[in-house]
Amino acid sequence: MANTPYPESYYAASANAVPPRPALQDDVETDVCVIGAGYTGLSAALFLLENGFRVTVLEAAKVGFGASGRNGGQIVNSYSRDIDVIERSVGPKQAQLLGQMAFEGGRIIRERVAKYNIQCDLKDGGVFAAITAKQMGHLESQKRLWERFGHTQLELMDQRRIREVVACDQYIGGMLDMSGGHIHPLNLVLGEAAAVESLGGTIYEQSPAVRIERGASPVVHTPQGKVRAKFIIVAGNAYLGNLVPELAAKSMPCGTQVITTEPLGDALAKSLLPQDYCVEDCNYLLDYYRLTADKRLVFGGGVVYGARDPANIEAIIRPKMLKAFPQLKDVKIDYAWTGNFLLTLSRLPQVGRLGDNIYYSQGCSGHGVTYTHLAGKVLAEALRGQAERFDAFADLPHYPFPGGQLLRTPFAALGAWYYGLRDKLGF
Fold it and tell me: What class has domain 10-412?
C-alpha cells in the first residue's frame, strides 16, 4: 500500500522527531476503535485511556495529517457561531450548557501540554482585530456575552492600545483574550499521540478505514486488517470521504491557505507583534497570523469551497500579508500550503450517534483547534454513560446543503462572495 507522507509545510519541516508507526496488518479486538488520529480522535482516545478503556486508533496517513497538523495554530475560544446565535436557535437551557463548554477546549490543551510535557511552543494571548466601527461594536457585545458565561480574561482595546500589540494601521480597535493563544499545531498532535501510546493505546498509520460493518459488535475494515470493537468513534472530519454517507451529505470540505516567511530576526518580529500574541481580524472571510518560535510570520486566510488545491497559494495570501504589513515587501516566503476543514450549513459542529455504538463529531467550520479537544472529552463522557453534554451538541439542528453534494460548493461560494463584498464595503 502507498505510504502517504505529510504535505510540505513549515510544520512538517519543523516537527519533533517521532518513530514511524506500523500499518494494521491483522485482526485486533479493542473496546473503542477511533477513526482518525487528529485532535478529535486523540483527545477522545486520551480521555478514554485515562478512564480504563482499551483504545485502538486508525489513521489513513500519518498522525495529524489533516487539519490538526496544518492549521494556523491559534487557540480561539467558543464556536464558529457564537453562543447568542445558538441561544436563538435552541433556547436558554441547551445554550447554557454549550456556553459553559465554549472555553473548555483551550483549558484541555493547556492541561495536556502540562501533564504530558508536550513541546509545542505554547504562547498565551489572542487578539480579535476590528477594521470597522460595526466590528468593534460586535466585539463589545461579544465581551459582554462571554463574561455572562464566566469568561473574564478579556480586554477591549482602542486604536492606541491595539497598536501596542500589532504594528498594523488597518485596525481601529480590538479585543485581547489572554486565554487564547497559539501553538505549533503538528507538534501538539504528535505529543498527544505519544501520550496515547504512553497509556497503552495503539495507533496504526497508513491504515485507512475502508468499510464499517455495523451491528452489535461493529468491525472496522482496513486494506490489510480489521478492528472489532464495542464502540467506534468517527473523527475523520474533512478527510473522512464517503465512509459514512449520512455524514458526508451534511458537510462540505473547504480549503484554507497558509504561508510562512523566512525567519525575520528578533528585531523585525518584535516590531510586528511585540507581545507575541496571535491575531485574527473580524471579517467574514478572515485573515489570521502569528509568529513562530524561530521568528517567522505564519499568515493564513481565504477559503476555497469544495477543497480544491489552488495553483498558487502565495499569489492568494501574500497580498493579504502585505496589506497588513507593507514593511514585509522584501521578505521571502519559505512555505505555502493548503489544508481542509469541514464546513456545515449552520456553522455549528455535528455530534451524534449512529445506532447504539458508532459516535461521531465533525464540522468545526474553521474553529477546530479548541472545539476538537472538547469534542474528544464529550465523546468519551458519552461512552461512559454521561450523555448530558453530548446530548447538548447532538440536539443542535443540522441541515443538508441545498442541492445536495452537487450544488453545495457553488451555493457556499456565492454566500462567501456576498459576505466578502460586505466586508469590503464595511457593512
Answer: alpha beta
